[in-house]
UniProtKB/TrEMBL annotation:
It comes from Luteibacter pinisoli. Residues 5-90 form the Carrier domain. NCBIfam families: PRK09184.1. Gene3D superfamilies: ACP-like. Coiled coil: none annotated. This is Acyl carrier protein.
Length: 90
């Protein structure tokens, strides 16, 4: 498992908290592992919950009609990178 960066760990904590993933520790989420269809068992409703939590925490919206969403939500790493890019611009 790859090591999480500080930003990835913060995001992992947000995901675990916002989705009430009681059996998952944020530090155990592999930044390279798929967020959906993988060990976390997340689905499209979870993506909406994550998008809402990101909006509240980081002050920008992940739009549902963004054609890059599949890439953005690929893994903890890709989502974290997207947040860092847009957070800096916000």
């Amino acid at each position: 498992m790859a090591t999480q960066t500080e930003a990835q760990n913060e995001l992992a904590e947000l995901i675990v908290t916002s989705l009430n993933l009681e059996s998952v520790k944020a530090a155990d989420i592999d930044p390279e592992a798929p967020l959906f269809g993988g060990d976390l068992g997340l689905d499209s409703i979870d993506a909406l919950e994550i998008a809402l939590a990101v909006s509240k925490r980081y002050g920008f919206q992940l739009k549902s009609d963004n054609p890059d969403n599949r890439t953005i939500f690929t893994s903890l790493r890709t989502l974290s990178e997207h947040i860092e890019q847009h957070r800096a611009a916000a």
